[in-house]
Amino acid sequence: MTGGVVNEQITGRTASEIATSVRELRERGVLSPGTVLPPVRELAARLGVNRNTAVAAYRQLSQAGLVVTRGRAGTMLVEHDAVAQEGYAQDTVLRDVGTGNPDPALIPDPSNVLSRVLGRPVLYGEPVIDPALDAWAREWVAPDLPTPEFRVTITSGAVDAVERLLAQALMRDDAVALEDPCFLASIHTVRLGGYRAVPVPVDDEGMTVDGLRAALDAGVRAVISTPRAQNPTGVSLSPERAAALRALLTEHPYVLIIEDDHFSMLSERPYESLIGPGHRRFALLRSVSKFLGPDMCLAIAATDPETAERLAMRLSPGTTWVSHLLQRLTIGMLTDETSTATIRAAGAHYAERNRAFAARLRDHDIDAEYVDGMNLWVRLPRPARAVSEQLMRRGWLARTGDEFLLDEDAGPSHHMRLTVHALSDQDADQLAADISAAVR
After folding, report:
1. Which pLDDT belongs to residue 119?
2. Among the three residues 284, 311, 334, which one is the final residue of a domain in this structure?
3. Which of 1, 347, 373, 397 could form a disulfide with 94 if both were Cys (CB 3.0 to 4.6 A apart)?
4. Which residues form the HTH gntR-type domain (predicted)?
5. For residue 424, with 0-12 CB atoms within 10 Å meaning exposed, 13-18 middle and 19 or more buried, which class applies?
6. Burial class (CB within 10 angstroms; exposed 0-12, middle 13-18, buried 19+) of 392
7. Closest residue by Cα to residue 281 from 204, 221, 330
8. Which stretches in the chain have pLDDT values below 70?
9. Residue 344 lies in a domain
């Protein structure tokens, strides 16, 4: 379908009406993935609206994951699932070094603990949180919260918690501040919820003050932050940066702060927080998937009392509670000496292997430094997509930084996120040499 024909099909006077028109044309099959939408000036002129209205409509479609903007190549409709997902790539013969997965050999074996936590069945109407897990979780998070006035909720992982937290606090098209580059699941959750993602740049000390100030000025109603081992960069908030961000947020006590401490027990860094003593809406999330395995789909959410009440309404028994068997297994493993020793060994392993690979890259004159986290964030002298294509010819599949970017005007990424902790020394040497060849 030509651009002129597409232009004639789209209707609307407001940004929401124009975006809805494009969405409905796609759903009816009138427009299909790969169709290039008309330039905003051309569309605005035909509809008799301000150019900014057309820009806002395309932005809504982009945030919903329905279109991608390719600069001079225009804005193109894509498949609904345009956001990249974590985990192994499907149907590839290449060696995947972009998975973001923990090492299965370093996930504690639950067999021995499981036999000890089996007990009587839990019935409808009983408390949705296991008392032992609730007590342990309170002790775990209390030192990292500025107030004793908090409650613990158990959810089916951190992504589930973020989705529920946003749903109980926001309406469709509300703005959410996200780190840029950003964790893939956060991008996906915000887009599926119909919220507007406002990018906040991340530097070596974490989320920037100027970036968060601009996001607050833009009216964000929630902020999602990763205080340590930020995915994909691995950076952690410095004490100075955290203090500056808290000072800024004192003027916005009702903006919901969601802190995703996904690497918690594996991290080498101290915990720094954006949540100040007077902040009214907050949630500190700690999932167990990085150290007990992704299949142990459980997260602890420590929130202000009002947010906890709203979450409780969405976790009613018999519908969406988290299995008590899973809760008992979690607390059993987190208090088992063998399991916790395995977790400590895993954290040391990830740090050692990532540092060693960064040193290999430096030997090839590629600037790389491990900060924290499961992965290694590497800056390249060429656009990452070009390097990735060269690596594919050498048998490797890597993730480029483009997948994690929110700012559509940032240009091509020069970063690559690598998951290398499971590579043998020989394979690590080969990958480093292949990256060196690819960038040249």
Report:
1. 81
2. 334
3. 397
4. 12-80
5. exposed
6. middle
7. 221
8. 1-5, 7, 70-73, 80-84, 314-320
9. yes
Q: How far apart are CA 256 and CA 169, in angstroms?
A: 8
**Full 3-state SS string of 39-92:** CHHHHHHHHCCCHHHHHHHHHHHHHCCCEEECHHHCEEECCCCCCCCCCCCCCC
Instruction: Report phi then psi at 29, rounded to 5.
Output: 85, 5
Which 8-state DSSP code applies to residue 312?
A: H
Residues linked to residue 68 through DSSP beta bridges, in sequence order: 76
Q: Say how far apart CA 430 and CA 266 lie, in whole Å.
A: 27
* Ramachandran angles phi, psi of 344, nearest 5°: -65, -40
Q: Which residue has the tokens 């992965």?
A: 375
Pairing outcome for strands 67-69 and 396-397: unpaired
Final residue before a domain boundary, out of 293, 317, 334: 334
> How many Cα atoms are found within 13 Å in the side-chain-facing hemisphere of 108?
29
Tell me: do 142 and 222 sit in the same domain: yes
**Does residue 110 fall inside a structural domain?**
no
**Residue 396 within a domain:** yes
Q: What does the block give as tokens for 192?
A: 């599926």
For residue 172, what pLDDT is reported?
A: 77
Q: C-alpha distances in angstroms, 76 versus 34, 222, 364, 371?
A: 6, 29, 39, 37
Instruction: For residues 238 and 272, give the distance between their C-alpha atoms in angstroms, rounded to a whole number.
Output: 7
Give the pLDDT confidence score for residue 301 in this predicted structure.
97
The domain total for the chain is 3
Domain that holds residue 22: 3-77
pLDDT of residue 2: 46
Query: Would you state the structure tokens that stand for residue 421, as one six-digit string?
Result: 């902790």
DSSP code, position 301: E
Q: Which two tokens stand for residue 319?
A: 């519908």
pLDDT tens for residues 320-365?
688 999 999 999 999 999 999 999 999 999 999 999 999 999 999 9
Establish if 253 belongs to a structural domain. Answer: yes
